[in-house]
Amino acid sequence: MSNRRFLGVTVLPEYIQNERIDGVLENLARMGVTAVATSPYVMAPADEKTGGREPPLDAGAGKVRLLDRPLWGKRELFVRTAPSFTPEERLYEGLVYRPAAATELTRKQGPLIRDFLRAAQSRHLKVYLQVQAAIPPGYRVQFGGPREDDRPRLPDGRRTPRVLANNGSLASPHVRDYGAALIRDLLRAYPDIDGLRFDWPEYPPYLLDDVFLDFGEPARAAARRLGFDFERMRQAAATLYKTLHGGLHDRHLTPLTDADGGRFVLTRRLADNPGLTEWLRFKATLVDELLAGYRRVMNESGGKGKEMMPNAFPPPFTLASGFDFARVARHSSAISVKLYAMHWAMMLRFYGDALMKANPRLSERVLVRALVRLFDIADDEGLPRLADYHYPEPEEAHPVGAGAQARKIAQAQSEAGTIPILTLAHGYGPAADFRRRLHSAWHAGGRHGIWINRYGYLSDEKMKIVGEVCR
Question: What are the structural domains of the chain?
Fold first, then answer.
């Protein structure tokens, strides 16, 4: 990457369709943007039976969310998608997963994406395509998912009862093979892009159950191949799961409210439980293998000079998700670390509700303080009640500290070494709060810069804020 301060915005295709190429590019220019990412699909309005909600529901918690920039005149709607290109069928021969077929929508609207990428490059912007790392067919987060055999499993073999990130098992050869074929297809269809961004190349820990993945058959086979003791890991995870679901007491949580955030106690307990530490290393190995394989396919498919830029949760969530910055940095041009504060509030509520339901004698105040410390999302003790944490409404500030955001980026950069960590800020929320969070993200990003996700939440007022804060 160049020494110029990086400022990227994710512009999903529906806005290119609604505001047209020149309209979007003029807005990006006013903000001083240096890079843009989009995805290889096109969209059309649908109804509730045939489409998915935009914005996404996020397991029901995100239903309060509305778009700042309307689509087809609406701030929330149901939509359907089609690929923006015609997939090369031969690349997928013999695979379990197949690409979504080109439709009339592809033929009518698909060329707009290629035209947008070329027009952006003509204005000296770097251009990227973003795809899902483990949700075939990979074009868009709401549209796709794994087969039953490839779904990640809990230690007792169950699927997670509630799903937000519809990822397949990162150990599944079928998921990996499809990802590799998609990379080859995209580099064929869009040979001039500067790079690829992979979203959710980890086990996204949105819900408490998500932490306890993955113990399905693909993971068992991968553990055997890689030399991990699958049964020891499974038993250790099952024991911890049982403790958290009925055996948790205030005395377990109180150390997490100490000044050191309970780091000594947690480290001590991990040291005493080799099955848990092996399980964390196993997840990190699966993530590393997935992205190393994707980098190799890029190199072999004419993309050796193109950037690979995975998106990641921030520390400490990455301990549970399996994203090891030091290992992934070896294959990456840069890593984008998400400062999605509205999700942190949602996650604290998800975890807190689950733990209180399973352990009704817990002190709510102790539990909330422990989760605030464990997630490291506040610069003070945080808010006192679970009810204070939820998915923020459009005009509600996000309960996150500037220092906490900066710490997460600094920790990721320390682990990644010389590979740039780009702060990935989110446009959702009221303008004044967006300015506060953007200022934190821009300065936390140091000399490397930031991405802003996503254009649909950038009102004209927020675009002005971007120009003011990031210049």
Answer: 6-205+280-349+377-469 (3.20.20.80)
In 103-221, which ranges are E strands?
126-132, 195-199
The CA–CA distances, whole Å, from 164 to 145, 205, 208, 278 equal: 11, 9, 11, 26
Rg (CA), the chain: 21
Report pLDDT for 56: 84
Give percent helix, percent strand, percent coil of the chain, each to the nearest 5: 50, 15, 40
> Which helix (H) or strand (E) element contains residue 290?
helix 274-298
DSSP for 64-126, please give it. G---SS-BTTBSSEEEEEEESS---GGGGTT-SS-PPPP-HHHHHHTHHHHHHHHHHHHTT-E
DSSP codes of every residue in 375-413? HT--SSS--SSGGG-SPPPTTS-----HHHHHHHHHHHH
What average pLDDT is seen over the chain?
95
pTM, rounded to two decimals: 0.96
Question: What are 428-446's pLDDT values in tens digits?
Answer: 999 999 999 999 999 998 8
Q: How many Å apart are CA 435 and CA 22, to the nearest integer?
A: 26
Contact 314, 338 (CB under 8 A): yes
What residues pair up with 337 in beta bridges, in sequence order?
A: 312, 423
Q: Which residue has the tokens 């953007």?
A: 438
As a whole number of angstroms, the distance between CA 139 and CA 182 comes to 9
Tell me how far apart the alpha carbons of residues 141 and 121 are, in angstroms, rounded to a whole number: 26
The CA distance from 154 to 241, in Å, is 9
Q: Which residues pair with 77 in a beta bridge?
A: 54
**Nearest-5° Cα angle at 110, 109 to 115:** 100
The tokens of 279 are what? Answer: 């399980």
* pLDDT tens-digit map of 280-305: 999 999 999 999 999 999 999 999 99
Task: Tell me the residue type at 57.
Answer: L
Q: Are 195 and 308 in contact (CB under 8 A)?
A: yes
By the 10 Å C-beta count (0-12 exposed, 13-18 middle, 19+ buried), 46 is classed as middle
pLDDT tens per residue, range 444-463: 988 899 999 999 999 999 99
**CB-based contact 430:465 (threshold 8 Å):** no
Residues 6+ apart with CB under 8 A from 414: none
Whether 289 contacts 172, CB under 8 Å:
no
Q: The tokens of 276 are what?
A: 């848990």
Strand-pairing partners, residue 310, are none
